[in-house]
Specification:
alpha/beta; five-stranded parallel β-sheet; two-stranded antiparallel ribbon; 6 helices; 7 strands
Amino acid sequence: MEPSKPLVLVDVDGVLNPARSQAPGYRRQWVFPGGLARRLLLNPSHGPMLAELAEVADAELVWATYWRNRANIWVAPRVGLPTLRFVPIPRCWRPPAGSSLGIWKAIHVAAWVGLTSFVWFEDDASAVSHLARQEGLGRHLMVKVDPLIGLTDSHVERARAWLNDLRR
């Protein structure tokens, strides 16, 4: 059986939508998920940069965000991405005792990816540290993104180098 393509998992808030990036290229945009107004700070160069990473690495881009399919509606067209599959992370209004929303997300990402190799661009430190302790996962790289700055070229280059090593 042929191994599945590696995945490039992308979070939205803190990664594509930083809290306050001073980097050039970001544009403030209003979106209305669920009928509620929300302001995003998005950089249209991120879509082509991520698409090129996936293409060169023969990987699949996938949303790993609480936005789930709404990322395809409200974020993808504004950053130049096509419709992507998404990790079906259930809504969590109150995380289980001793947990956090990041840990909740990491548990569901781990269950969804299983043994498939992946890179995950994620800003939540609790998700990053929890996934690092998960057993039964395929090879993976967590790329911790500063939620104030968002995704940078160096994050993508780090993922590219890891994916290149994975192919060898």
